[in-house]
Amino acid sequence: QVHVVESGGGLVQAGGSLRLSCAVSGEDALTYSMGWFRQKPGKEREFVVVDKWSGDTTYYQDSVKGRFTISRGNAKNTVYLQMNSLNVEDTAIYYCVADKVRFGIQEEVYDYWGQGTQVTVSS
């Protein structure tokens, strides 16, 4: 059974930074494609950044390029999302996603989802 657990959300002032963490626990030895989606209040869920299991491909949403960085942890199937220069438009519930085989920016690609962590940016 696979579990996805996020942490690190919270309240921050505009211009500030936060780091989200995500760990996937499973019973296999695979490296998962992982990433983050978010859902802003009253909006549909959208992709933020995704990182392929092979380590050679990463996609960022245009609005976060240069501000957000995804990185892999030393522990297998852990990722971090460093978010800098946050603005109120980044306020959302952030979901960590993972998949054993597939990769892409569509949410349908990912079989495994975390429970979500709230990020609130105040002006």
Quick description:
This protein is mostly beta strands. The chain has strands spanning 3-7, 10-13, 18-25, 33-39, 45-51, 58-60, 68-72, 78-83, 92-99, 112-113, 117-122. It is built from no helices and eleven strands.
| Basic shape | globular
**Integer-rounded radius of gyration:** 14 Å
Overall pLDDT: 95
Number of helices: 0
Q: Give the topology string: H per helix, E per strand.
A: EEEEEEEEEEE
Topology:
Layout: E1 3-7, E2 10-13, E3 18-25, E4 33-39, E5 45-51, E6 58-60, E7 68-72, E8 78-83, E9 92-99, E10 112-113, E11 117-122
Parallel strand pairs: 2-11
Antiparallel strand pairs: 1-3, 3-8, 4-5, 4-9, 5-6, 7-8, 9-10, 9-11
Characterization of this structure:
The chain is mainly beta. It is 0% helix and 50% strand. It has no helices and 11 strands. The strands form 2 sheets. Strands 2, 4, 5, 6, 9, 10 and 11 form a 7-stranded mixed β-sheet that branches. It has a 4-stranded antiparallel β-sheet with strand order 1-3-8-7, with no helix packed on it. The radius of gyration is 14 Å and the shape is globular. The termini are far apart.
Key features?
11 strands, 123 residues, single chain, globular, seven-stranded mixed β-sheet, mainly beta, four-stranded antiparallel β-sheet
